[in-house]
TrEMBL record:
Its main location: membrane. It comes from Pseudorhodoplanes sinuspersici. GO terms for cellular component: plasma membrane. This is DoxX family protein. It is a multi-pass membrane protein. Keywords: Cell membrane, Membrane, Transmembrane, Transmembrane helix. It is found in: Cell membrane. Signal peptide: none annotated.
Length: 133
């Protein structure tokens, strides 16, 4: 089997790996805010219903949905918007370049989630299992 054929065969699975790993890393922000896992000083006194608290809900719930691949497209679209909003609210005012303003991760999440909104959850997702039925 040619390398191209192997890559083509594995593309839907690797899409799932990208989704799962991105969601697990993203979900850490929500678990740190709400479950103190891992404990972080900056989230110890989170203001209820504030921007960071609300973002934490999206990170925790949206991240969990993306990990399992349930409602991948709409969840990824909402999370992409959340990350664009986070970038322009928290990072852009500190300078134009993401490397200078600390916004690289927000930009990367924004575009990975935007890709997932169009590509879907991949072969290893609840969405794919539901579509087979």
């Amino acid at each position: 089997m040619a390398l191209k054929d192997v890559c083509t065969a594995w593309t839907p699975r690797m899409l799932s790996v990208l989704r799962i790993m991105s969601a697990l890393l993203f979900m850490q922000h929500g678990t740190a805010k709400f479950l103190s896992i891992p404990p972080m000083e900056q989230f110890a006194k989170l203001q209820p219903y504030g921007l960071s608290w609300t973002a934490g809900l999206f990170e925790l719930i949206g991240g969990a949905l993306l990990v399992i691949g349930l409602f991948t497209r709409p969840v990824a679209f909402v999370l992409s918007g959340l990350m664009a909003f986070a970038y322009f609210i928290a990072h852009a005012p500190r300078g134009f370049y993401p490397i200078v303003n600390g916004g690289e991760l927000a930009v990367l999440y924004c575009f990975v989630f935007l890709y997932l909104a169009f590509a879907g959850g991949g072969a290893w997702s609840v969405d794919a299992a539901r579509n087979k039925q």
